[in-house]
């Protein structure tokens, strides 16, 4: 059984301009002890799908349908039939305990007027019964685990006394506090300098090895997650357009969006021309009837505009939604 | 995905799509300006809308009633004093036989005028002073803000009463009195917002484009505090009306025969135990309803301009 | 490539005083600490470094948002630190800036049309009709539609906003544009779009750029020459190829080694030649070479003597490793 199994998740936001269909029926799964990447640009629904799982949607957001099985337990509010209190109670027990999140911006997540120690033991106080001495012991342990030198002193400090990379390590330590089964990292390196990025990814990898947790890594940069993920989901316009093992995605991309993403990452070791994807992502107030990528795709066909392509399995692990793979045999061309 | 059968997949569907049919810079929402956006939200607040309707009616009545009524606000008629409401005098008459309806509506003119004009004056002074102070910063800001602190330290009412003593009891001196200190809140608010906005990149961008200081201040900074400014104004109006009513009620405001609501209430006070105790109801009712609707409007406006309520 | 410099910076220092209130002693942040370089005509000079290295302060000093503490900035042969009023307006017409955050750099209360028209209004260029035409043609240049003029910035995505911001800077036909991390806040797929757009504009209009970024990968494509900056000092200047294929300074090497590449196998194999720790506070710059606290090759000498930029091969580098 998978650690996390999402089926047909649909999430929308009510805005003044109309209903924004941020997540449009996605299915994905995460196993124990693997790092899964969710890659897409802003507005692709990658973060909102995970906020839906954590029950952290903003007030105007609702999960319209779908099931979310976490560790064998159904945690989609849809299955609670309007019993919001029961859902909230369940999620309070899960959030920060068996499922935790690492946020993009360390500075806005940490409370500036509380010491690192206070913030670090917060989830432990909420979920575990521990004495003060045990809590302190655990806090020291956690900081050591995320590679922060002289943890005893750091615990007494405030967030502004730490550098950006250190803060992100503290956030990771907070996420790890209750030994979660699943860690969702929402663009954990975007706010950091390149020299620090690689180290944070490395740290997440190491910790996964040690704790055996499942990790979901949300990012817009295929380069950043290349070394870390075993499997990757590519999201575009609220849908998953391609999924596969990392090697399948990086070396045999099937969807034009995936190849586009790969082509526009700067690879300094090869002097390739930059090939950007033209245009902007679709407006999800009126999501396109067909493939969401059609307006920016250089291989777009007439049918792409009319109908969403079906999911085609290319191997046990590799699947893609693109009319190119559905093209009748007569004129087979284009990868 | 399940409904594959519903459409036949003919080869011509797999022809390349014409690039003219691609539209990747498409924006679905209707273009809407900031103010129309705010109005849209304001309209949803029923109480605020009621308040606005009431206020508009009040303004119209204040203008029209004294014009069409056969009575004037100071026309005495000793043959009909202290009448209860009747057909000729819907609100009755006072101890000099003056029509109370006309006097209340005439009072509305004065009260509303004082309320709105002093709010307007405070708006101009506060925005310019606060904007200037916040944008220039440094020593200038320090000096300007200390002046404000000193003004703020003088008891408000004391100041108003002093001014009335010097300039006499009339509309102008009441307005001067009210305006002398009421703009301070506005100035402080605008200064604080301008200070944080001026570091924003769009203000720097205007600077790099070569825009003059006043252009940056008014076209870029002040316009971005518009929401808070409007909210602040909706609070200034009732407070000015209230101050005036209070002053007139205690007898140092507008003096007879001119009538503001405060003056009317003051005059009717002595009649509470006499034949016509309900005279005092009318001006008080007018003040209360106007205050209430202004507060509802203020509430609605602050919601409408709150960026979080998108 | 033309060999006349359009911009010449010599010994530039920009310091900011901090503290000095009632408590604590007055300190000085040496954000830009003795920097010299030139930007040639039609050239793109890339400037890379981590956050807090002073690269944005340098860019802002060049467009006179900040006043330099010391040093000379010559633009087209004129020292811009002493300009008269009308010379200043000329300078503003010729030198523009694109900002980092596309969500903050456009006035949210102005329509796209007003935003792009504003520079022409400020400098009194053209009749209202000519301005409208120019706005339309600029929108087209950056790949937006003329009917977008009546919309407000919040209706656009990050990449679209950055293109609006580019259109605004082009309204004055400047000769030199400081691009202050114009792609850092954007998605990877959009970054390449903006870089290509900037390159195309340069080809068509012969503008020179100072292109600031924290990611060497992004700068590589657009720059002719690149300078690496660390704690207020330039530690290496070289042509973009030299810097990539033969980085000299240990800091440049580290920056290069940390660029993420979309290739799992090579990322896994990549040797972890990492630099230690993080950038020190600019309030407390190490003595001698600023990089010595993180440098794997640091020696006694690095602590005592600040290395100066000098020619090594085709590049210039400030490092004692290359002393004969």
Mean pLDDT of chain C: 88
CATH topology of the largest domain in chain A: Rossmann fold
| Helix residue percentage of chain A | 25-40%
Proportion of beta-strand residues of chain A: 15-25%
If classified by CATH, what would the architecture of chain C be? Answer: 3-Layer(aba) Sandwich
How many β-strand runs of chain A?
12
Span from first to last CA of chain A?
Answer: 34 Å
Mean pLDDT of chain A: 87
Report the C-alpha radius of gyration of chain A, rounded: 21 Å
End-to-end Cα distance of chain C, whole Å, is 32 Å
Shape designation of chain A: globular
Main location (chain B): membrane
Protein name (chain B): ABC transporter permease
Keywords (chain B): Cell membrane, Membrane, Transmembrane, Transmembrane helix, Transport
Subcellular location (chain B): Cell membrane
Structure write-up:
Chain B: The chain crosses the membrane at residues 47-68, 110-132, 144-167, 173-190, 221-241, 247-268, 280-298. The complex is a heterotrimer of chains A (335), B (310) and C (324). Chain A has 335 residues and is of the alpha/beta class. Chain A has 13 helices and 12 strands. Chain A has helices at 46-54, 84-94, 106-109, 116-127, 132-145, 151-155, 164-176, 194-211, 222-225, 246-251, 256-263, 302-306, 323-326; strands at residues 4-15, 18-30, 35-39, 61-70, 73-74, 99-102, 182-186, 214-219, 231-236, 239-245, 311-313, 319-321. In chain A, strands 6-7-8-3-9-10-12-11 form an 8-stranded mixed beta sheet, with helices on both faces. Chain A has a 4-stranded antiparallel beta sheet with strand order 2-1-4-5. In chain A, strand 9 and strand 10 (239-245) form a beta hairpin. In chain A, helix 7 (164-176) packs parallel to helix 8 (194-211). With 310 residues, chain B is mainly alpha-helical. Chain B has a domain at 108-310: MetI-like (MetI-like fold). In chain B, 65% of the residues lie in helices and 0% in strands. Chain B has helices spanning 34-44, 46-68, 100-136, 138-153, 156-167, 171-197, 201-208, 213-221, 226-249, 261-269, 281-304. Mean pLDDT of chain B is 85; it is low at 1-5. By secondary structure, chain C is α/β, with parallel strands linked by helices. Helix content of chain C is 33%, strand content 23%. In chain C, helix 3 crosses helix 4 and helix 4 (128-141) packs across helix 5 (158-170). Chain C is globular. Chains in contact: A-B, A-C, B-C. The interface between A and C is large, with 44 and 45 residues.
């Amino acid at each position: 059984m998978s650690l996390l199994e999402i089926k047909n998740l649909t999430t929308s936001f009510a805005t003044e301009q109309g209903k924004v269909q941020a997540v449009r029926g996605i299915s994905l799964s995460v196993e124990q002890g693997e790092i899964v990447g969710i890659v897409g640009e802003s507005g692709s629904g990658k973060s909102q799908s995970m906020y839906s799982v954590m029950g952290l949607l903003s007030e105007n957001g609702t999960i319209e349908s779908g099931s979310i099985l976490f560790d064998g337990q159904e945690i989609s509010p849809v299955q609670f039939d309007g019993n919001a209190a029961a859902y909230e109670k369940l999620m309070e027990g899960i959030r920060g305990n068996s499922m935790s999140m690492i946020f993009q911006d360390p500075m806005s997540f940490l409370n500036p007027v509380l010491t690192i120690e206070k913030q670090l033991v917060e989830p432990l106080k909420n979920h575990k019964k521990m004495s003060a001495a045990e809590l302190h012991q655990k806090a020291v342990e956690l900081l050591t685990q995320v590679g922060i030198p002289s943890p005893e002193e750091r615990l007494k400090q405030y967030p502004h006394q730490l550098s950006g990379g250190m803060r992100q390590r503290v956030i990771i330590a907070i996420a790890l506090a209750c030994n979660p089964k699943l860690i969702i990292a929402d663009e954990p390196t975007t706010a950091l300098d390149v020299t620090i990025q690689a180290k944070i990814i490395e740290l997440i990898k190491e910790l996964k090895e040690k704790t055996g947790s499942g990790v979901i890594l949300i990012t817009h940069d295929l380069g950043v997650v290349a070394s870390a993920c075993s499997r990757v989901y590519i999201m575009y316009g609220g849908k998953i357009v391609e999924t596969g093992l990392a090697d399948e995605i990086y070396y045999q991309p099937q969807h034009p969006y995936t190849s586009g993403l790969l082509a526009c990452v700067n690879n300094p070791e090869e002097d390739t021309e930059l090939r950007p994807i033209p245009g902007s992502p679709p407006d999800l107030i009126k999501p396109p009837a067909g493939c969401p990528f059609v307006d920016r795709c250089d291989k777009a066909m007439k049918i792409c505009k009319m109908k969403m392509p079906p999911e085609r399995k290319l191997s046990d692990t590799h699947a893609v939604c693109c009319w190119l793979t559905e093209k009748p045999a007569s004129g087979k061309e284009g990868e | 995905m399940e409904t594959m059968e519903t459409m036949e997949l003919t080869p011509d569907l797999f022809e390349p799509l014409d690039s003219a049919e691609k539209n990747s810079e498409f924006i679905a929402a209707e273009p809407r300006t900031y103010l129309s956006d705010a109005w849209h939200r304001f309209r949803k607040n029923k109480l605020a809308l009621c308040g606005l309707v009431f206020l508009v009616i009040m303004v119209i009545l204040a203008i029209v009633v004294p014009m069409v009524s056969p009575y004037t606000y100071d026309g005495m008629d000793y043959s009909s004093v202290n009448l209860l409401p009747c057909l000729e005098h819907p609100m009755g008459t006072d101890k000099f036989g003056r029509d109370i309806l006309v006097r209340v509506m005439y009072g509305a003119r004065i009260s509303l005028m004082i309320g709105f004009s002093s709010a307007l004056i405070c708006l101009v002074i506060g925005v310019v002073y606060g904007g200037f102070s916040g944008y220039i910063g440094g020593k200038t800001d320090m000096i300007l803000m200390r002046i404000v602190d000193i003004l703020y330290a003088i008891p408000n009412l004391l100041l108003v009463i002093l001014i009335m003593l010097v300039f006499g009891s009339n509309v102008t001196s009441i307005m001067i009195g009210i305006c002398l200190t009421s703009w301070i809140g506005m100035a402080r608010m605008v200064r604080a917002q301008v200070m944080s906005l001026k570091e924003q990149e769009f203000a720097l961008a205007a600077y790099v484009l070569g825009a003059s200081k006043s252009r940056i201040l008014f076209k870029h900074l002040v316009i971005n505090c518009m929401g808070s400014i409007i909210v602040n104004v909706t609070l200034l109006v009732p407070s000015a009306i209230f101050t005036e009513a209070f002053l007139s009620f205690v007898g140092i405001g507008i003096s007879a025969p001119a009538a503001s609501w405060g003056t009317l209430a003051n005059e009717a006070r002595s009649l509470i135990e006499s034949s016509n105790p309900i005279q005092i109801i009318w001006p008080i009712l007018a003040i209360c309803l106007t205050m209430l609707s202004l507060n509802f409007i203020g509430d609605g406006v602050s919601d409408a301009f709150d960026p979080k309520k998108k | 490539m033309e060999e006349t410099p359009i911009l010449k910076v010599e010994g530039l220092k920009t310091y900011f005083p901090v503290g000095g209130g009632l408590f604590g002693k007055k300190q000085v942040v040496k954000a830009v600490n003795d920097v010299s370089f030139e930007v040639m005509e039609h050239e793109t000079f890339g400037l890379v470094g981590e956050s807090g290295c002073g690269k944005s302060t340098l860019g802002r000093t060049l467009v006179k948002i900040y006043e330099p503490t010391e040093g000379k900035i010559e633009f087209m042969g004129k020292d811009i630190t002493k300009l008269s009023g009308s010379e200043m307006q000329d300078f503003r017409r010729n030198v523009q800036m694109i900002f980092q955050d596309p969500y903050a750099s456009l006035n949210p209360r102005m329509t796209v049309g007003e935003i792009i028209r504003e520079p022409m209004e400020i400098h009194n260029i053209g009749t209202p009709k000519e301005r409208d035409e120019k706005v339309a043609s600029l929108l087209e240049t950056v790949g937006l539609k003329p009917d977008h003029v009546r919309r407000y910035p919040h209706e656009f995505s990050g990449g679209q906003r950055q293109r609006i911001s580019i259109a605004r800077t082009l309204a004055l036909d400047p000769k030199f544009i400081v691009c202050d991390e114009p792609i850092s806040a954007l998605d990877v797929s959009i970054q390449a779009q903006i870089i290509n757009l900037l390159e195309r504009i340069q080809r068509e209009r012969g503008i020179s750029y100072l292109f600031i970024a924290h990611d060497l990968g992004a700068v590589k494509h657009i720059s002719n020459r690149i300078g690496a900056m660390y704690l207020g000092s330039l530690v290496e200047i070289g042509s973009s190829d030299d810097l990539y294929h033969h980085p000299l300074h240990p800091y440049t090497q580290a920056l290069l080694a940390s660029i993420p590449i979309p290739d799992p196998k090579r990322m896994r194999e990549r040797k972890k030649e990492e630099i230690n720790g993080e950038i020190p506070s600019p309030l407390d710059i190490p003595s001698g070479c600023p990089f010595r606290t993180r440098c794997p090759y640091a020696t006694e000498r690095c602590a005592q003597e600040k290395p100066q930029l000098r020619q090594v091969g085709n590049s210039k580098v400030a490092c004692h490793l290359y002393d004969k």
